[in-house]
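Sample entry copied in:
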Amino acid sequence: MKQLQHMEQTELLWTRWQHDQDKQARDALVVAHLPLVHKVVYKMSSGWHAAINFDDLISMGTLGLIEAIERFDRARGYEFATFATWRIRGAVLDGLRSLDWVPRSLRSKAKEIEAAYATLEHELLRSALDEEVAERLNMPLPEFRQALHELSVSPLVSLDNVLRSDESGNDVLVSDAIIDPNAPLPETSIERSMVQDVLTKVLERLPEKERMVILLHYYEDFSFKDIAEVLGLSGSRVSQLHTKAIYRLRGALSRLKLELRS
C-alpha cells in the first residue's frame, strides 16, 4: 500500500514538473532520487584510492541528477533510473576532469599502454602477456608493472569513461555497452551492437582472474574488497587486475573507433 502511494506521489510530481514546470516538484524529485546519486557515486569510487572528497563527488552527481530530471522525456518509454545514471556518471567525470588532478605524465602513460594493448591483442587475437606489452613499449618489465600499479591506485582508469555521445547528445559509457542484455536499454543502434560484440569477445579471452574481477565488479556490484575475499587475493592485486583488464577493453574500443572513422 505504501509503495503504491509512493508511486502515485512520484507520478504526480513528474506531472507537475513536466506539464507545469513547477520547480518545487522538480526539487522534490531531486530529493526523492538522491539515493541513486549515492549508489552511482559509491560504485564509481569504490576502486579509487586517491584522496577525493566523497561529498564533492555527491555534489557533482547531484548536478547530473538535476540535469537528468530536466531533460527526461517519459514518452520515450525507458526507465528514469537508467537515464539518470548516465547523467550522474557524466557529471562526476566532468567535475573530476575540471579539477585536472591527474598528472599529465600519467595520462600520457595511460594512452601508451592502452595503444599497446590495442595493437598487440589485435595482432595476437588473444590477451597479451605483461612481458609482450612491456617489450612493445620498450620498457623493462618491472617498470611496466610499476606503471600499472601507479594507474591502479588512481581514478584514471574506469569503465565509467565516456565512449561517445549518441544522437541526442547523451553520453554513452563503456560500461553501458556491456550491461546485461536483458536489462532495459534506452535505445539500440548498429554502432552499439558492434561495441558489444567487440567487448564480449575481449571479455571471453581475458585471463580468468581479470575476467572474474570485471564480472564481479560491474555485473554483481562487488567492491574490490569483496572481490579480494572471494578470489583470495590482496586488495592491491585485485586493483591491478582491474587496471589490466580495463586497458585491454579500452584498447579494443579505441581500435574499433578508428575502424568506424575510416
Q: What stands out?
A: The chain has twelve helices and two strands. The radius of gyration is 20 Å.
